[in-house]
Amino acid sequence: MRAFARALSALFLWAAPSGWRREAGGYVRAWVEDAIRDAEHRGGARPWIELTTTIGRDGMMTWMREWRAAVGGLGRPLADLRMDLRFACRSWIRRPGFAALAIGTLALGVGAVTTSYAIVAGVVLNPLPYPDADRLYHVGQSSPKQPGRVFLMSYPDLMDLAAAPGTFEAITGSWVGRFNLLEGPIPESILGARVTPGYWQTVGVEPRLGRRITPEEYAVGARVVVLRHTLWANSFGSDPNILGRSISLNGTPFEVVGVMPEGFRPPQILRQRNAQFWSALSLISDEQRADRRGGSFNVMGRLRPGESIETARASLAGFGARMRAAYPEILADRGYSANPLLDETIGNVQTQLVPLAGASILLLLIACTNVANLLMIRATERERELSLRVAIGAGQGRIFRQLLTESALLGAAAGVLGAGIAWVSLELFTSLNPGDIPRIDEVGFEPGGLVFSLAAAITTSFVFGLAPALLSRQVGPAERLRRGGVGSASRRATRIRGGLIALESGLALVIVMGAGLLVNSYARLSSIEPGFDVEAYTLSLGYAGEDDPVAMNAYHQRIQEELEAIPGVEHAGATWMIPLTGWGWQGLDIRGVPPAAGDRPRHSFRYQRIRGDYLEAMGIPILRGRGFDDQVDGYGAPKAALVNESFAAWISRHRDPIGAIFDLGEKGFSAGEFEIVGVIGDIRQYDLSPPPPSRRSTSPRRRNRRERSPGS
Amino acid sequence: MTKYPTPLTPAVYHVLLALAPEPRHGYAIAAEISQVTAGELTMGPGTLYGSLRRMEGWGLVEPSEPPADAATGDGRQSQRRYYRLTPTGREALRLEALRLERAVTLARAHHVLGGPA
Q1: Across the interface, do A61 and B47 touch by the CB < 8 Å criterion?
Q2: Which of A139, A250, B1, B22 could make an S-S bridge to A301, C-beta 3.0–4.6 Å?
Q3: Which residues of A23-39 are buried (b: 16+ CB within 10 A; e: fewer)?
Q4: In the prediction, which pLDDT does B115 show?
Q5: What contacts A462, CB < 8 A, 6 or more positions away?
Q6: Burial of A527 (0-12, 13-18, 19+ CB in 10 A)
Q7: Which DSSP state fits A435?
Q8: Domains, chain B
Q9: Residue A421 C-beta-side C-alpha neighbours within 13 Å
Q10: Could you report the per-residue pLDDT of A262-315, keeping only the tens digit for each?
Q11: So what's the pLDDT on residue A46?
Q12: What pLDDT digit, counting tens, does each position of A634-676 carry?
């Protein structure tokens, strides 16, 4: 209250003529301070209400009096303005239908432009929410076959790059997986990131509590973890003593060393959008750490200040040359490159959003044309009224001002309503997130769009609101009165209206065509066969039992049986990644199929682990061979695999896919030989866009009952 | 110096009245007026300052040193401006009070205030 009273009086002082402000400022401030002390002394709300109303009323009166005294006669225009406003309100209220139509139309246009501007600004125009975000780049392997694209990197490459002095100030690599967090009675399945120690310097955001993971901890593979603010708040009740506490991730204790600030948005390019914590990437398996052939890690770098993308790419090319020289057999055709993080994050969504913004501007134009037309009709109607007012002595300027006030009122009402529409539609848009737009959580109300659309709306109402006065200027009042509504002015108004209608038809045609294209692309998107039954329900479970394959298998079996026992459940199955979320990657060779050419010793494929009636539950068809059978493929049985249609077609060029054997080597829990026993339909596992035309799009699916729980 | 307009406006009358016992500063005048009129007449800083400025022009009030026992507050003492009545002001207040008294007497004589005739 105290601050409000001070602010209010400061506002009035600021708005007052400077002479008066100099003269009385100290006096007024002293008065207000005394009054505040008095109100505090008296206590309760009443003195404050009295004080603020006194300051408000006194401020208004003083403001008007002093300005009138300062410029002489400004009181008169103010009084006129008040009269104009009253008259304008009355004139709109007299025609409520007309006013509602005009205001509603303009408000829709203003709302549409404000909304789409906010979305385009939030997604495309605004920098990413990191300090000096323009220095952030997505770094990775490049391939001459797909120029301009940046791919994942292997761990040894990442370590060499991070150690090599270059144009990058900091480099970080990341891997995201699913972890079981045991905090309370029910285990929680959460996503967690493993990162290199350069992570915090790269993103430029420090933990709010505690510290980052140090290079020393990283080197020894210390089990320390930095929590995301949401995890800290939701699972640990924002415990201020969280630092040093031990938490259980996949049954292993980790020490909490830091908490990231609220609102920190992990880079989407590192697939960390939903990551809940960060631990050391050095905790990955020895095999992964040694594998220079594979590529499993997303890498991001921060350029040194003043460096450009060209110097960065040149230094990466130099790094590539050194690496090829050092490992000629493994890295024969491999290069390294970088792309701006913003471009990589938003991808091609720009091409979808910009037409949306264009369409909304067209909509605003149509709204403006409509309102212009309405105002012209009104102008023709009002010709007689205005003529009468001129005849009884109203000056041209006075009439102009009256019409201006009416237009301003129209524009202001439309602006307020339009801002409301924009606010509601933005809330809807961001909560629904149609089309899975990146950075949607960064979209917020942008005053820029409102200012632009408001300017358009007010200009329209000004220009066409003044039409009556402009149209009848040359004709004398007597002449005008005599002619009434059928004079030359009216004929001109009709011509203008005709032009407006033609313009509007043109704009409408453009927007209809644009809408047709939008609907077409939407129809294409929604007619995409995802390959599975979108009516299936999924739930995510954590596991907190012993780290033992037999126990885990029993646990999953029990859950499956309990789910199947629920009335109405037709099929129950499990997977480690449900469709549209992601894949695992695996290199393999199939007997009877020539090995991969070039540097790669093995073909690289996406894979998925499933159990139970997963295929039936998801409605994925078995096209050839058989599906998994608990009796035949149960725990301990020979390993069976299913492949999808595209992969089967590729194998068919060399041999019959059914019965083909592939070997996954000797290490790891998915080691051993697998036999392909069936072919299933293609599904969209990563997103709804068609798979890229590379061999990697093919995807064997297999199941191995001996595997451990996902993410372990 | 222009002659002050008579009869005095309620605002001018009450400011003079508030200053009659002792010099006061801005908010003290406003608080006194609000109190004696039971909140009927409240004066904000701008209005009061305008009135005081005009009254100074008419020679009714003049700036004054703070009284010796004035509360020093919290260092804002220097910004407060104290005013006191000039002899003209005191005379104007007396004349206005007399005028009002005559007016009240007249009203009583015409039984407009009720009570015994």
Answers
A1: yes
A2: A139
A3: ebbebbbbbbbbbbbeb
A4: 60
A5: A404, A407, A408, A411
A6: exposed
A7: T
A8: 10-69+79-109 (1.10.10.10)
A9: 23
A10: 888 888 888 887 889 999 888 887 777 878 877 778 899 998 888 888 888 888
A11: 83
A12: 666 777 888 888 888 888 888 888 888 887 765 554 667 888 8
Chain A residues in contact with B28 (beta carbon < 8 A): 34
Delimit the domains of chain A by residue range. Answer: 2-72, 88-125+350-524, 144-333, 549-703
Work out the mean pLDDT of chain A and round it to a whole number: 78
ipTM entry? 0.82
Instruction: Give the β-pairing of A168-182 and A246-249.
Output: antiparallel
Per-residue pLDDT tens for A580-603? 555 555 667 777 777 665 545 566
Decide: helix, strand or coil at residue A639.
Answer: strand
Residue of B nearest to A26 (CA): B79
Give the integer Cα–Cα distance in Å for A366 and A504.
6
A14 min Cα distance to partner chain B (Å): 13
Give the SS3 label for residue A292: coil
**Is A37 in the B-facing interface, judged by CB distances under 8 Å?**
yes
- The two tokens of residue A697 are 């799009």
Do the Cβ atoms of A31 and B73 come within 8 Å? no
CA distance B66 to chain A (A): 14
| B31 neighbourhood in chain A, CB within 8 Å | 35, 38
Tokens of A434: 């149609």
Burial of A363 (0-12, 13-18, 19+ CB in 10 A): buried
Contact assessment for residue A266 and residue A129, using Cβ atoms and an 8 Å cutoff = no
* B63: three-class secondary structure by DSSP: strand
Contacts of B76 in chain A (CB under 8 A): 30, 33-34
Which of B39, B45, B73 lies closest to A31 in CB terms? B45
How far A23 CA sits from the closest chain B CA (Å)?
10
Within A527-593, where are the H helices? Answer: 549-564
Q: Do A27 and B42 touch (CB under 8 A)?
A: no
Q: How far apart are CA A569 and CA A532, in angstroms?
A: 17
Distance from the Cα of B16 to chain A's closest Cα (Å) equals 18
